[in-house]
Target: NADH dehydrogenase [ubiquinone] 1 beta subcomplex subunit 8, mitochondrial
Amino acid sequence: MASTLLKKILISNPNGVRKAAEIFCNATRNHWNYQYKPGPYPKTPAERAAAAKKYGMTIEEYQPYPEHMCYGDYPKLPDIGSDSKDPYYPYDQPELKRNFNEPIHATQELYGEDRYDVSMKPRFSLLHQWTWFLGVIGGSFALYMFLEDYKFGRPVTIKQYPKDGPHYLFCQK
Model:
């Protein structure tokens, strides 16, 4: 079966093998595909509708980035980190908390589970964090300034040179 299919491909279209090999190599190398590149910024309602359909969104929820940011027709998604998503939802890719064909955020590298989460409430307020930071730094500086005159170390006399005067040896002559 496979050999007859291969013969048909080779006889009917010699470029078909080359294209199949290119697709296979592209999948194995896993490098950038030209189809992943966003299109130009949508200026008309028809272009907006086409871009919304391209990213699997409705026209109402599709909102592109501003044109000066140079993201093209890529949708502006809400800033929700992976850690804030429901852990019990049956995702297609549970390790990334994503579904198949779901567009990813333009700055996805910032929003992984092990990274910053914009929507998460911090444990301590910013005032509390600054108070402790400045308290530790200020306390360390105060201890340094207070203990600057009290050196701690091995007591050592100055090095003795013959020109400085009489010196005593600890061996018998």
User: Anything to note?
Assistant: The first helix runs from residue 2 to 12. The radius of gyration is 34 Å. The chain has a mean pLDDT of 82. The chain has three domains: 1-30, 40-76, 77-132.
